[in-house]
Amino acid sequence: MRKVHMKRGLIAFAVAITMGGVVSPVVPVNAATGYKTVSTKSIKKTAYHKKSAKGAIFNKKHTRKVINLTAHPHTTWYATKQATLKHGKTKGVYLYIKNSKNSVKGWIWHGYLKKGKAPFTLTKAKAAVAMDAKTGKVVWAKHANTARPIASVSKLMTLYLTLKKIDGKSSNWNHKIKITSRGLVSMSRSASCGGFHFKLNHKYTVRQLYYAAFLDSSNNSAIALGKWVGGSNGKFIRKMNAQAKSWNMGQAHFVSASGLENSDLRQYGYAYGKANANKVSAKDVALIARHLITQYPRVLKDGKIGSMKVNGQVCHNYNNLLKGRKYYRASLRVDGLKTGYTPLAGYCFVGTGQKSGKHRVITVVLHDENEFTETRSLMNHAYSMSSMND
Question: Which intervals hold domain Peptidase S11 D-alanyl-D-alanine carboxypeptidase A N-terminal (predicted)?
Fold first, then answer.
């Protein structure tokens, strides 16, 4: 088999010469005759990124392949040396490159690279957006105008309408809501749909339900708040849609106060409408968050609470960008805002923070796999924009 591989390599090499192209490292790495160095010089550190799907990084003699460029499609490479290498009768210009972590390094034909840093992208999120909270300007987007299922991120609209009804009045915060729905009690006990346990005929204050819905993402608490705000579950959902329409969110459509899909809500008696799920675009989710933060800034203080006891139960905030959590970065100053997950919607997260000397940023990632690491990257990229400066 080795002889066959050698023959194929020599044929490819001959074809490249015949076509008049500059030969890239197409010969097999076990070739007896490696590349010879004609000249080498240091160059000013220059950023490059992948030009096409072709190319690989080798050691200088081309006896060992380091890695194919396709394994690092969004990496910025930094060249510090340039060499003219000779293979047979053909010469080519090669660059010595490293990634930013210096974990991958080697030589590559210059024609496989393009000057400049790699364009920013998120590889896991199906839709995402970064918005300047001060101006409302979108500074980066990926499929941001496509309506998608958003799971518990939907609760931002529920919290907005709840705070609108509370209107800052302590009497409303302390208003007691009696739980008479066996469906909500059953939902609260579900491992997949519940979280904050309800007792039948027990009274909870609006404040308690607010924190349970916000921090613990309690679906039953969100529905109970919606019934209080709207008078019934159906009336509240119509309020959600009316509010979205008043903000010119043409594609946004709600069927649930909690973000659960009707396929889950049906067994508890809370299915509504013909569609199965709330569907909102990443841009419109960011706009909802912007309205919420601007009109009710207390959510930023509440959004930083890691956990708290509510009616004797611990409500845990699942935002892992907060201080003390795994993905925390002090420079980003994250103080919100809302997580979400269903199998249909995937992992969703609305983040917000305000870096020193910058405008506040709002980020949204929908149907992500690495929602916190990608949010971190998105925030840093947004802050690199000059328009985000104070």
Answer: 123-369
